[in-house]
Structure formats: structure tokens, C-alpha cells
What we know:
Elements: E1 2-9, E2 15-23, H1 26-39, E3 44-48, E4 54-56, H2 78-81, H3 83-91, E5 94-98, E6 102-109, H4 121-124, H5 131-137, E7 140-147, H6 148-199, H7 209-226, E8 230-238, H8 240-247, H9 249-266, E9 277-282, E10 285-291, H10 296-308, E11 314-316, E12 319-321, E13 324-332, H11 339-355, E14 360-363
Parallel strand pairs: 13-14
Antiparallel strand pairs: 1-2, 3-4, 3-7, 5-6, 6-7, 8-10, 8-13, 9-10, 11-12
Helix pairs in contact: 8-9
Amino acid sequence: MLRLGKRLFDNNNKPFGILIINYEGEQVANLIRHYQELTGFKSKFIMLNNVGVYVDGTPFDDIARSFMWDGVVPAKSFALENPKIWKKMQSQEFGKYEADEGLYSFLKFDPTKNSGSYGTTKHLGYNKITNNLAHKEGGWTLVSFLAKSEFSSHTIHSVKTSFWYLFTGLVLLVALIILVLRYQREHQALFNQSKFLATHDGLTGLNNRFHLDENIKQMVNKADEEKRTISFYFIDLDGFKGINDRYGHNVGDAILKAVAGRLTHAIRYKRNEVSDIVVRLGGDEFLVIIFDLESEKKQIDFGKKLLHLFDDPIHYDERSFDIGASIGSASYRTHSDDFQEAIKFADRMMYEIKNEGKNGFKIYSPPQ
């Protein structure tokens, strides 16, 4: 409850009594709390009458409230202590004033008026107060004060908080980017692996039949454009089946890998150009494709080079295994203008070597 008192005088200026009004302060307190929330700080709060005398919240212990004074403004009043601020308060209904010691925020309200303005008793819940009180105490001013030290501390805290949010946001953003890039990299690696497994032999890493179809078309187009040849070497291992049956698939797989390595080292690889390739057709059969051997003699020389790759035994698990090869060869544009037919000619020559005793090389010769 807000209690307001006023000494009363007659027409001869003689005191004849005291008027005391008990004004429920809940609405005023609610307004003060609301105003404190608007400021956003835990500020000190004071209440002034219409001449700048403290109604509540006085910083002076020896100062009584405004209702104890009769028109004479005491020396220790807000208006006399802070003339610049008080002058601004007289010219505005609400506002702020930044002084050296801190920030003042103020709001006026008049309990005797019933207009639509913010600071009226309409918002406090009362519409009627005596004219005498209205004349003397009609205008109240609510003032909040925030010291600069507290303001700076709050500002620093706000900046730190904002920086922390920004830093956390950046960290989360970077983490998200890393996750996206990692996902893309893993997805690309998985795609590349899947593509490799689809086009290469799982055991030896050589091209498979599917990849052969892709590569051979590119090589044929290049050979047709530049009038080059493509030489095919069909290779079937001699003695492999017996070793695989006797020593098991582990030994057989090791031999196939070793043969694939030797064949791969024998061919030419040209980056971003048509290159020679080695294909595992299945089992112990391989196809070596060489682009642009300029003459039949070079084709024969390369066939002999492939055969000599099997001169040395293959070592595995402290054992040595002698493996031979039957090799047949034919060339696209030399022996046939159809590359599929040239491959068949090479396959036929390989079987002729098999039938003639194995471990040899033979090049296709057109029938006379």
C-alpha cells in the first residue's frame, strides 16, 4: 500500500488537519516491475513527485518523503541535485539521459488524469483522486538508474555471450562442413571402389571382360583414326591346374597374382592416352592388348618377351612352382579389319600351341 499524507490549511493559512490517503500500491509496484523489465537491467529505482522531490527510493537516509514537505523543495532533492536531468524530464513524458555516473531512464504518469496516455491511472486501476492531491502530487516520475560500472559489466558480459554464441555457431558450421566433406569423400571412395570392382578382377586387380568391352572400343576408334594396329595376345597357363589341385586355392591364387604382376610390368602405360592393357578372362586365361606395334616383327618380338616372363619359377610359401604359357597372337588391321575376329584368331593360335606341346608362342598367318 502506498500512503500519501498532506497537511491542510484554511483560508487564513492556519493548519486545521492532515489528509492521509492510503493508495493501494500493487498497481504501482507492477508498473515499476514492468518498467524494470523494459530497461533490461537490475537497476536502482526511485519515484519523484512533480517538483522533483523523492517519493520513494531516496538515496539519503535523513530525507523524508515528499508528503512531509509543504511546497518548499528541500536541498537534498532530485531536482536540485540533478538539474540537467530534471530539466529533460520536464520536457518529455519518457526517455533516457546518459550522465557521467550512469544511465537514467524515466517515465511520467499522472494519477489525476484519465487520458489514453501511458502514464495514467487507467493503467494503475484508479480514476479519481482528490483535486488537492492532484494539485500537489499530481505528476509522478519513475526513474531507474544504472551505474556505468554495472552497465559496462553487463555490456562486456553481453559481448562475451554474443562472441560465445558466434564462436559456437562457427564451430558447429565448420563441423558440419567437415562432416559433409567427409561424407562426400567416403561416398566418392565407395563409388570408386564399386566401379573398380565392377570393371576389374577381384583377385588380381586386372581388367575384367566388362572393362575389356569399354577399352577395346576406345582403342579401335583411335586405331581407325590414326591408321594404327592393335595386337592381341591370348595366354593360357601350362601346369596351373595340377598345382592348384595339389596345393590348394591359396597357392593357385598366389600364382595368378604373380603372373598378373609380371604381365602388367611388361606393358606400356600412358597417362591420358590409349594404353596397353592386361585382361583376366577367367580361370588361368589372360589377354594382353598392345596398341600400335608398327610391324609384324615387333609383334613377334613382344610375343617372345611375354613367353620369357615364365622362364623363372614363381615362389610362394617357401616353395617354387614352374609355370609355362601357351600364347597365340593376331592383329587388328594386319590380320583382320574386324577386331573381334582378330581376337578369335589369337585364341585359335593359342590352342594350336597347346596341341603342339604347350609352352610356346605362335602368331596368326592367313591361309595361302
